[in-house]
Amino acid sequence: MPRFERHIFICTNERDDADSRGCCAARGGLDVAGWFKAEGKKRDWKGRVRANRAGCLDACEFGPVVVVYPDQVWYSPTTAEDVRRICDEHIEGGVVVQDLLTPGLG
Ligand code: FES
Fold first, then answer.
1. pLDDT for 29-44, tens place per residue?
2. Using a 6 Å cutoff on CB, does residue 40 contact ligand 1?
3. First CA to last CA distance, the chain
4. 49 lines ligand 1 (CB under 6 A)
5. Between 3.40.30.10, 3.30.450.40, 1.10.8.60, 3.40.630.30, what CATH number should domain 6-100 receive?
6. Which residues are paired to 49 by β-bridges?
């Protein structure tokens, strides 16, 4: 029995500006994490769904990236509306949001 119905990992990894890989923190990962936290509070996810900040998920070029388990679905949301849609359609509704999938990983 899984601990949570769904577990969302949001990359907020930060690298030095000189690093050619870039990082999700510089591409809005901290905002994305905050939007997921806010959605979770509104939806009373406690004990059911968990959203956690994560270190590098090795998909830096597509950042900011998010992965949803146990579904193993990767997203690259950039706005609060994107996060709201992932929460409404996938986390609550069980339907993958095709147009927000991370290219090549979704
Ligand atoms: S820095 Fe976010 S996936 Fe690598």
1. 999 999 999 999 999 9
2. no
3. 25
4. no
5. 3.40.30.10
6. 6
